[in-house]
Design brief:
Blueprint lengths: L30 E2 L3 H20 L6 E6 L3 H17 L5 E4 L5 H13 L5 E4 L9 H7 L11 H9 L7 H12 L8 E5 L6 H8 L9 E5 L6 H5 L4 E4 L17 E4 L2 E4 L2 E4 L11 E2 L6 H20 L2
Helix pairs in contact: 1-9, 6-7, 6-9
Keywords: Amino-acid biosynthesis, Histidine biosynthesis, Hydrolase, Methionine biosynthesis, Multifunctional enzyme, NADP, One-carbon metabolism, Oxidoreductase, Purine biosynthesis
GO cellular component, one term: cytosol
Protein name: Bifunctional protein FolD
Amino acid sequence: MVEPSGSSFTGVDRLGSRPRSRDMTSENTARLLPGAPVAEAVLADVRERVAKLKARGVQPSLATILVGDDDASAGYIRIKQKQAAELGFASPHEHLSGDVTQADLLKVIAGFNDDKNVHGVLIQYPIPAHLDYDAALQTLDPDKDVDGMHPLNMGRLAVGLPGPLPCTPAGIEALLAHHGIEISGREVVILGRGATLGRPLAMLLAQKRPTANAAVTVVHTGVKDWPRYTQRAEILIAAAGVPGIIQPEHVKPGATVIGAGVRYEGRRLLPDVDESCAEVAGAITPRVGGVGPTTVAMLFRNAVVAAERANP
Ligand SMILES: NC(=O)c1ccc[n+]([C@@H]2O[C@H](COP(=O)([O-])OP(=O)(O)OC[C@H]3O[C@@H](n4cnc5c(N)ncnc54)[C@H](OP(=O)(O)O)[C@@H]3O)[C@@H](O)[C@H]2O)c1
């Protein structure tokens, strides 16, 4: 997912009213944790690794598959292809018509699986409703799964084996590390246990590594008194997709708040974390330009790692 960049959370003014203008600042504003510098650092590393592969005669390649004519999806693919080219990847592309059969979609995936020159494959989500996305994902060679969402890669994450990492969780860990937010030994509460975000993120941040190693709690609709948990979190990560679900009273003063859950109404982005949380938090992701850019960067990191693994 690509977010527009530019605006940020603002805090309260000295009289206690909450300014909404993006240009107003306040002593009470939490430190912002933008994703762009994190993405730049990750992509600089990717660029170097691509250059090293090319110097060995390996052309890293990230294939994309788009099904149908949804404007937003086509736009996301164009942005990713442009970025792939800038980073030095080859980017073969298959644009399938919106009425393609499941069998034909699987054939295209199988073709990329068999192509030794293709190291990563991205199936742009969503695909038309008559197609089975999970079945398509399961057809993909797990080692070429740059989204890190194949069930085998979820299993690798669960047991700590190397493999492509789910992009948004990996991006959140990188964001925290880049901004010097200590995770190890601290209490992390994640609101949401979805398969793309909350669940893999919990596995990632509980791993025994210096930039993880946290005490992780996951809350969801089954935990009616979830604020009791979020209120004690040193790091609170919103991954529900319910606009405004996190309000200041859910945040421990001084805590770090990461807003990953969003809902789109048309092109309007509605985040889980209400802007007013910046009045209470010590550090917080901006309303836009927080987690999003890191997610996209991790896609390219997975692609270059896949190319390296295929060419040891
Ligand atoms: N920024 C990015 O790049 C990026 C990338 C991926 C996803 N996302 C966003 O992250 C969000 C989560 O994605 P997902 O695929 O994991 O979604 P999902 O599968 O729908 O999971 C949502 C989770 O939130 C919980 N939840 C929903 N409403 C709740 C409530 N009122 N109280 C407590 N818990 C509640 C659900 O609980 P139950 O399990 O009990 O139903 C579920 O665990 C979405 O907004 C998605 O757009 C962002």
